[in-house]
Fold this sequence. Notes:
Helix content of chain B: 40-55%
Order of helices and strands of chain B: HHHEEEEHHEHHH
Number of helices of chain A: 9
Radius of gyration of chain A: 19 Å
Shape of chain B: globular
Mean pLDDT of chain B: 92
Strand order of the largest sheet of chain B: 3-2-1-4-5
Distance between the termini of chain B: 29 Å
Strand order of the largest sheet of chain A: 1-2-3-4-5-6-7-14
Largest sheet of chain B: 5 strands, mixed
Low-confidence stretches of chain B: none
Oligomer: heterodimer
Low-confidence stretches of chain A: none
Structural class of chain B: alpha+beta
Strand content of chain B: 5-15%
Number of helices of chain B: 8
Distance between the termini of chain A: 34 Å
Amino acid sequence: MMELVCPAGTPxxxxxxxxxxxxxxxxxxxxxxxxxxxxxxxxxxxxMAEGVAFAHARGARVLVAINTFxxxxxxxxxxxxxxxxxxxxxxxxxxADIGLLAYAAERHPGLRRHLSVQAAAANxxxxxxxxxAFGVKRVVLPRVLTVEEIAAINREVxxxxxxxxxxxxxxxxxxxxxxxxxxxxxxxxxxxxxSPASHVSYAEDGQELVARLGGYTIxxxxxxxxxxxxxxxxxxxxSGEQTGHLxxxxxxxxxxxxxxxxxxxxxxxxxxxxxxxxxxxxxxVVRAFRAAFEAEAxxxxxxxxxxxxxxxGQAATTGAYSKTWR
Amino acid sequence: xxxxxxRVPRVISLAALPLPLPPxxxxxxxxxxRMARARPEMVRRLGEHAGRRFLIDPVDLPFVLLLRPQExxxxxxxxxxxxxxxxxxxxxxAAFLAMMHGAADGDALFxxxxxxxxxxxxxxxxxxxxMDDAELDLTEALSALAGPFAGPLRQALGAAERATxxxxxxxxxxxxxx
Lengths: 326, 178
């Protein structure tokens, strides 16, 4: 059976994920060292150690995301995060920056290293470089690859690969997207926040819900239509004579039906996005995917996904895996 | 598309209109203080946002609530006399209770337009995350205040929950499922 890797933004969500059947949980410290540095979210050192103990007692693993890019002069914060993850008993750390990877390989050789999606390693040469240079054991592949491309990668690499199966869909090459910093000065890459809430405002204007990011109106959602996240990549813009979602519609990834193909493509682990979501979301999604995994392993038909209501836009896509984008 | 959350019937909402607020406010204050004492990490999680004033607006009730986590305090106000606030969350009572008890996801309620937010978005996000982690349970909090009547109160709240469809206790704890 492939490994089900699940999100946890809080200790309560970690417990919910494991009780719902997660094989692994990924989470981060409450600072800018991880790419979900949202208000009220994440773990302090004590909570991380308790979360690891809770997971280990139930046969699950904890992967600590330290996957932003350290600021020049600010490296000690990221170095402390590595040391504290190891001290907490983490099963692996998820890293993106080559400097931090080098530091981890040298100072924490016993701490298993995964390559974050933020590193955007999308071909065998790049992946093999990370494996050879830094001893990376697993690579989280960017969400821009088809299933065929993932299979081609797996034929040429020794390390494990992990891909996203469900949740918010970042349509850019991750770790290289500057849209959020262009408007707000903050980005997931450096600060751990895409479209930070401190720069978001909502207002009702007649029948429309108006969303602004950094003072710019990026959505006017009509009454009754699903509200999207306030991200530029899913914003509604006018370009020339065309008005619409120029980058991508507000939809979420749901590749449930591709689980068998991803398994045949050699993928080791499937990841659910959503560390910013509630324990209710985590429990429901993890339970659904654990059931799908069990069905796949037993050769039964996959259950129909009933998770659209939890998704941005209340609609789902298989994203780049099937490459049907315009 | 909005979800099928139960709504407080209009007739009940109208009947609640003339109710005196002080006794209700006293009970809410006791519950808020009890929850804050039991879950000190909730205020810590709020960080710099703990001092903000949150207007909780159950749109199917004639009242609104003003939450000040730092105090902690929870005051009740009539709808036509809205207090000053930094952030406002509006939605049916069922949405707030479902989020509080781990039965619904806040983002999903936002996508479906059941929940609307205005004002300090970062503070609202912090509150949502802090309350979600706190695993609050209204039935348990009220029962703890009821002394020898805790058992009958639990039963009454369970019956009310079944009759109304409102989530009145933690829904994500297997032993708490009824």
